[in-house]
Amino acid sequence: MGEHLTFIGSVTAQLVRAVPVTLLILAVSGVCATVLATGLTAMSVARSPLPRLIQRTWTFLFRGTPLILQIFMIYYGFAMVPWIRHGLLWAAFRDPVFCTCLAMTCCCSAYIAEIFRGALAAVPRGEIEAGRACGMTGFLLLRRVIAPSLIRIALPSYSNEIIMMTKSTSLASTITVLDITGVAQQVIAHSYRTLDVFCAAAALYLLINATLSTLLTALERRLDVDRAPTPLAPIPPTLEPLS
Amino acid sequence: MTVPPPVLTATNIRKSFGDREVLAGISLEAREGEVISILGGSGSGKSTFLRCLNLLEVPDEGQIAIGDVQAPLTRNRHGRLEVSDGRAAARLRTQTAMVFQGFNLWPHLTVLQNVMEAPLRVHRRDRDEVLATARSLLERVGMAGFHAAYPKRLSGGQQQRVAIARALATNPKLVLFDEPTSALDPERVREVLALMRSLAEEGRTMIVVTHEMAFARDVSSRVVHLMNGRVESSGPPAHMFGPDASPAFRAFLSPAAL
Amino acid sequence: MMDDLTLLGFGPDGWAPLLLKGCLLTLAVSATSMAIGTVLGVLLAWARLKGPGWLRRTALVYGVVLRGVPELLVILLLYFGLPSLILSLSETFGWEAPGLPPPFLVGSLSVGLVSAAYQAEIFRGGVGAIPRGQFEAARAMGFSDLLCFHRIVLPQVARVVLPALGNVWQFNLKDSALIAVTGLSELMRTSLVAAGSTRHPFLFFGVAMALYLVLTTLSSTAFHYGGRYSNRWDRG
Asked: Which chains have 3+ CB pairs within 8 A of C?
């Protein structure tokens, strides 16, 4: 029993050291995918057909194929291209962490863009018309009227997608990255105590997911105007000029 | 003249939800061909009582018999009544039918399928016979042209008329109506009430929970007024709507009579 | 270019037969895991809705864990854990050691276990979406529980659930690629082997992508029409 606990303790210590790798992949690809998804969403409502076509093709391609295949394509495929192999980019493409982040950015941006697109369609027309009616156009309308509604609508699905991304980071282990799953696999392979290692690794993933979803739920609650308490402070007689 | 046999005998029905006693011992007997209107303010327990009669709610106390078949209610080890035999309860329910406030038509079946479902699947009657009955019932409720429509396409009044046809399709001994017109527009109320009136004239045994005073007065053979979970007063409509009615029932009527 | 065509052809150096076989295996694994997921998912949903307290909690924990942990980790658990489990079981009961479990079984079981967690949520939501009055109308007419489930619950759940199940199927299809790590030569594994031995990774991964796109597109079309059929009564 004592030996058992010592083993679980040392496995957990090993796995915890791999947590930064998992978080790094998640953070980099999370941020990049969200930025790229914003661009894709803008393309999806563009007037000219070419950007719309690009967005649709992108979504079709990356949602219709397994992420692991995309990772392999980038990691093994680009290594065979002479101008990459002997060019400046090789420093990046030989790094499995970079390749994982790149693949996840492409793949998850497609999913997130679909979430944003759905939310954009769900922003009540009247809100936008009211903005137009008081003279707002373009970026101002987007920033002050559309974006706040859109973020509120999209947030639950977006949180879901972030959880899915946390799980997807484990695929990095298939191209030699020693993230949580990679280390777990190593330990299993030479200790054969599968269930213990699985439980320790699972606990770490659940902890990461629980933290993320708590944060995102808190954000959701802050943004939820329907549930916000009515401010009791009286409106000041003279309003500060808006900056 | 001989007295017709009782179709339903409910004795001393009690029911509480948590601390609140909703039914404080109600007894009711319905004889063949009777139309009983149950009236009462909101929270008087009238819907709960009706739902006890076909065991949609299990009463805490009391006995129910349809014809001479007792409802399979026994005491569990906590001393509360429960349905001891689900099949026997289902068999008992096949003798009755219910029309709901919210229609409760099955949305995935067409009008005709809704009417045919129970006689076909529960009573296992002959398909051609069921089809013929269903068609004539739909004609009877004025919905013959809609047999292939899905409920979603129908208005509330139309849905309720189909629900009545569905209730009659098994040829039940007793039809329970749970506020059948409360969810309808005033326009549609009339068409459903007219249908119910013609069923009453046909000699159907019906127990109707309703707010429609005119229906209670003109159509029913007996009016029962529930108050605080008890029968406050009851009698033939001529008596209940006459000068000798109980003060409580007159008070209940007064806002409507104004 | 000629070279590529030979590699993808049906000739002695061509990989076409193996790739097609891989496709079929991918479909077979996905379908098996979908079926495992449906059976287990229904049981889990029932446990969450009607089971006794301890079973309800177990089902809840199962759902949280299997939906929160990477699929790859579940595959590793079964790939390494199942053989030793079978071994210790056969020792306990004195059976003859049955040998290693077939990779097909390990693969479809692990994807199926994850799928079950998602499907359970879908079924639970589907039953919850049916108004109570629907059950009451059936019970008031003397329907038995089984008849009510068969005639009233199932058709209505199918409508709510089918689009979501289509999504789960797409995930199953893509998750099945992860089983490549166990050495089962489904589409992903075959393309990996082909890419390695011919040193044409772009070609073979590209072909594999195209084949996955065919599979996902065809099945989403099928689910679309299935959904429309099961929804025919809801179009006002």
From this structure: A, B
Confidence of residue A243 (pLDDT cuts 50, 70, 90): very low
Letter string b/e over residues B77-110, b meaning 16 or more CB atoms within 10 A of that residue's CB: eeeebebeeeebbbbbbbbbbbbbbbbbbbbbbb
Residue spans per domain, chain C: 2-234
Average confidence (pLDDT) over A174-180: 93
Task: Give ipTM to 2 decimals.
Answer: 0.87
Residues B157 and B69 in one domain: no
Yes or no, beta carbons of A205 and C76 under 8 Å apart: no
- Partner chains of B (3+ C-beta pairs under 8 Å): C
Quick check: is B190 in a domain? no
| pLDDT reported for residue C169 | 94
Give pLDDT, residue A238.
Answer: 56
Q: What is the mean pLDDT of residues C111-138?
A: 91
Structural domain span for residue B110:
101-172
C72 reaches A (C-beta below 8 A) = yes
- d(Cα C112, Cα C178) in Å, to the nearest integer? 13
Domain count for chain B? 2
- pLDDT band with cut points at 50, 70 and 90 for residue A109: very high
Q: Where are the alpha helices (DSSP H) in chain B?
A: 46-53, 86-93, 111-121, 127-140, 156-168, 186-201, 213-218, 237-240, 247-257
* Per-residue pLDDT band at A237 (split at 50, 70, 90): low
Domain coordinates in residue numbering, chain A: 12-126+137-223
Chain C residues whose CB is inside 8 A of the B104 CB are: 131, 133-134, 136-137
Domain C2-234 architecture:
Orthogonal Bundle (1.10)
- Report the CATH superfamily, name and number, of domain A12-126+137-223: MetI-like (1.10.3720.10)
In a domain, B56, yes or no: yes
